[in-house]
Amino acid sequence: MRGVLRDLKEYPSRWRKLQEVVRNPIMREALERAMTRFVEGRALALDGLGDFQEWVDRCREMKDRALEKSQELWDKVKEEVEARGGTFYLAPDAQAAKEYIGRLAQESGGNLVVKGKSITSEEIELNPYLESLGLEVVETDLGERIIQLAGEKPSHLIVPAIHKTKEEVARVFSGACGREVPDDPYLITKEVRKDLRKRFLNADVGITGINVVSADPPAFFLMTNEGNGRLCATLPPVQVIITGWEKIVERMEDAFTIFDILPVNSVGLKYSSYLSIFTGPFAWKKGRQFHVVILDNGRRKALEDSLFKEALRCIRCGACMNVCPVYRTVGGHTFAHIYMGGIGAAWTAITNGLEEAMEVASLCTGCGTCLEVCPMGIPIPSLVERVKELAKDKGQAERMAVRLVSRRKLLESAVGLTALVAPEKISRLPGPAGTITQERILERPHQPPFHPWALSRGLELGKGGEVTLYAGCLVEYYYPQIGRDAVELLARLGVSLQIMREECCGLPARTVGEMGLWEELAVKNLGYMPPGKPLLFLCATCMSGIHAYQENGGELPPLYDLSQFILEKLGDGAFPGSYEAKVAYHFPCHLERHLGIREEPLKLLSQVKGVELVEGDEAHLCCGGAGLYAFKCPPVSAEILKRKLEWLEREGVEVLVTSCPSCIMQLRGGVEKKGMPVKVMHLATFLLEAMGKGADGGRMKNER
User: Which of 159, 286, 298, 477 has a CA-to-CA distance to 679 between 20 and 30 Å?
Assistant: First the structure.
C-alpha cells in the first residue's frame, strides 16, 4: 500500500511536467514537421523494395542466426583485428569502456578528441568522462554538435536535434561563435564545416560508432550522411571504434542487407551519402593506432532472456519513433532515459536497470504502431510488458487498479457504488485529478449489467447458440447497451447466441506486468469457453487479450470480431440497412495492429446504403485512451486525442464508429468536451440503427 500512496502522491507533479512538455509549441512543431516528412518519405521509398514483410522475415532470421553464435563470430573478428595490428577490447560494462578509451586518449599525448555520432557512447556517458580528464571533445555530426553546444542529449536515434527549429539552431551557433549566424540551414552548415575542418586536422584521437560488424570477412561498417565519420576514423593518429556486442552479423552480404533497408526505413532515403568499411589501421601515416572497443554492458545477459534478446536485433533506424503517438507528442527527452521510445524501455533495462527503464515504459500506450514499421520484427509492446513485469516495485497504483478491475465481484461492487453516487456526466474532477477531465468528459457506468439482462432473454450460459458471445468488462458494467444492441442485431440477422461465464480477459493485467494474474484469468476463461463454438467479441482489447492465451499453449475456438462474423454470415449478400451520414471508422489499436483485422470493418460499413465513408491515415491512429493510460498520463492522452478530433472536424464527420468500448470512452468524452456534433457509436449500435430499430429495453440517452 505504501507504493500505491507514493505513486498517487507523485502523479500531480508528473502530470505538470508532462503538461509543460506537450504545451511547448516550438518542439511540437519541429517534431511534427520532421515526423511527417520521414513517414511520407518512407512510404515512397519502400515502394521500390518489394514486400516489406519479406524483408522483416529475412532480417530477423539473419540477425537471430548471428546472435546465436555471437561469441564464435566475435572471436573471429578479434583474431583478424589483432593480426592486422589493431587492439580488441571487450568492455564488460560502461565504466570499463570509459576508462579504457580515456586511457587511450591520455596516452596519445594530445588533448583534442573528435567524435562521430554514436548512441553507444551516449549509453556509457563517454563525453562527460573524457572532459573530466581535461580532454576537449568535439562532436562532428551536425545534429550531435548542435545538442552538444546546447548542453542537451540526443532526442532521436537518427536525428539527434530533431526537436530543434532552424531558428533555435542559429541561436545555438551564434552563441558558440560569438557573432550572429543566420537561420539559413545552408549558411549554418557552412559555418559548422569551416569550424570542424581545423579540428579534424588537429585532432589527436578520433572516435566513431559502427552500424554493423561482419565476421566473414571481418569488417566494420559505418553509414553517415555528412562524411564526418570517415574523417574521424582516418585523420587522427589514434582511431577508436566503439560498438555493442549485438552489432555482429555473419557475412558481408548480411551487412549490405541491413544497409538496403536502414536509410529507407529511418528517414525515407534510398541511400545514405557515405558508407565506410574498416578492416584495420588506415596506414596513411606510420604508427597509426586502431582500437576496437566492444561493449557488453548487459547485452550477453539479455541473450539469455526469451524476450529481451529480441531487442538485440535493433539496428537503430528510429522508424518506431517516427510513428509513435507518444514520441510525436513529448519527444525523445521525455520518452527516454538514453535510448528513446518503447524500444528504449527495453534497452534501458538491459544497459542501465529496471528503475530507469520503468520511467520510459510507463509512457508507452502499447498501441503497437511500432510493430508495423520495425524491419527486424521486434515485438516492442511485449518488451515493454516485460520491463513492467520485472519492475515489480514500480507502478503500484496502476497495478492496484488492475487488480480491482480484474476481479469481477470487486469491480461489480465498485461500479454499482459509482453508478449510485456519480452524476451522469463528470465534466470536472476536483483537485489535481482535474487534469483527467481537462480535455474529456467522463460518464458514469450504466446499470443494470449486461449478463443479468441477457439471462432474462433466455441466452443461457453455454447452451443452444451457434456462437458464444464474450461481452467483456466495459460492455458488462459500463456500456451494457452495446451488448443489448449486439444481441438484437444478431437476432435480426438470424444468429442464435449463447453467452459464457466470464472473467476479465486479463489484458489490463498483462499491460502492467501482472503476468501471474493474467495467467490465472486465462486458465479460468479457457475453462468457461463452451467447446466447438466460435467466440464473438464486442471489444477489440478483449479479443486481443484472449488471442494471447495461445502463447501459453491455450487451445482456443475460432475468434471473431463483430465485423468479421457478420460478413461471414452475410456471405455474398449485402448488409440490409441504410444510414444517411458522413461516417468514419476508428481502428482500435488491438484490432488492427495486434490482431491484423483491417479490411472487414470498412467493407461492412461500405455495404450500408447512404453511408459516405471517410477514410484517411488518421483513422488508424491511436486515440490515446489505452485503458488506464488516460488516467495515468492524462496530458499525453489528451494531446493524442486532440489530433483525432481535429481530423473529425476537418473532414466533417458526423458519425464515428469503432469496435472498442475503451476507445468509445475516450473519443466520446473528447467530442462532448469540445461540443462537437459527432456521434460516437459502437459498430453494433450503428448497424442496428441502420436496420431501423433500437434494442429491446430502450436506449439510454447518452449511449450515442
Answer: 477
User: Which domain covers residue 170, as residue numbers?
Assistant: 66-295
Question: Is residue 619 in some structural domain?
Answer: yes
CB 202 within 8 A of CB 194: no
Supply the pLDDT for residue 699: 38
Tell me which residue of 63, 120, 61 sits closest to 312, measured CA to CA. 63
Rounded distance between C-alpha atoms, residue 588 and residue 545, angstroms? 13
Helix/strand/coil percent split, the chain, to 5? 55, 15, 30
Task: Decide: 470 and 502 in contact? Cβ < 8 Å.
Answer: yes
Per-residue pLDDT tens digits for 108-142? 999 999 999 999 999 999 999 999 999 999 999 99
Cβ burial, residue 320 (10 Å; 0-12/13-18/19+): buried
Total count of domains within the chain: 3
Q: What angle do CA 631, 634, 639 make, to 5 degrees?
A: 140
* 129 lies in the same domain as 271: yes
Which of 246, 269, 295 corresponds to the end of one domain?
Answer: 295
Q: Could you give the count of Cα atoms lying within 13 Å of 134 in the half-sphere of its Cβ?
A: 6
Of the candidates 535, 567, 599, which is a domain's last residue?
A: 567
Nine-digit cell at 308?
A: 529481451
Mean pLDDT score of the chain, rounded to an integer? 93
Q: What is the mean pLDDT of residues 384-406?
A: 90
Q: What is the pLDDT of residue 532?
A: 82
Q: Which residues does residue 222 pair with via DSSP β-bridges, in sequence order? A: 276
Is the N-terminal amide bond of 448 cis, ω within 30° of 0?
Answer: yes
Same domain, 577 and 545: no
User: Is residue 129 one of the residues assigned to a domain?
Assistant: yes
- 125: helix, strand or coil: coil
C-alpha to C-alpha distance for 84 and 282, rounded to whole angstroms: 10
Same domain, 123 and 260: yes
Say if residue 518 is in the same domain as residue 590: no
CA distances from 113 to 157, 176, 196, 223 (A): 22, 18, 12, 20
Mean pLDDT of 206-221: 98
Q: What is the pLDDT of residue 693?
A: 62
Question: Helix 683-690 vs helix 562-570: angle between axes, to the nearest 10 degrees?
Answer: 40
Does 137 share its domain with 274? yes
Please check whether residue 382 lies inside any domain of the structure. Answer: no
Closest C-alpha to 671, from 686, 656, 660? 656
End-to-end CA distance of the chain: 39
- Residue 163: give its domain's CATH number: 3.40.50.10420
Local confidence band at 9 (pLDDT 50, 70, 90 cut-offs)? confident
Q: Does residue 550 contact residue 526 with C-beta atoms inside 8 Å?
A: no
Would you place residue 702 in the very low, low, confident or very high pLDDT band (cuts 50, 70, 90)? very low
Contact, 384 vs 626, CB < 8 A?
Answer: no
- The answer to whether residues 543 and 642 belong to one domain is no
Is the residue at 419 inside a domain?
A: yes
Q: Is 191 helix (H, G, I), strand (E, B) or coil?
A: helix
Burial of 703 (0-12, 13-18, 19+ CB in 10 A): buried
Q: Which of 176, 160, 161 is nearest to 118 (CA)?
A: 160
Domain of residue 466, CATH code = 3.40.50
Distances (CA, A) of 348 to 41, 294, 335, 338, 355: 29, 18, 12, 7, 9
289 has pLDDT over 90: yes
pTM value > 0.90: yes
Is there a single domain that holds both residue 196 and residue 158?
Answer: yes
**Helix 408-421 vs helix 396-405: crossing angle, to nearest 10:** 90
Shared-domain flag, residues 130 and 150: yes
pLDDT digits (tens, 9 = 90+) for 413-434: 888 888 888 888 999 998 888 9
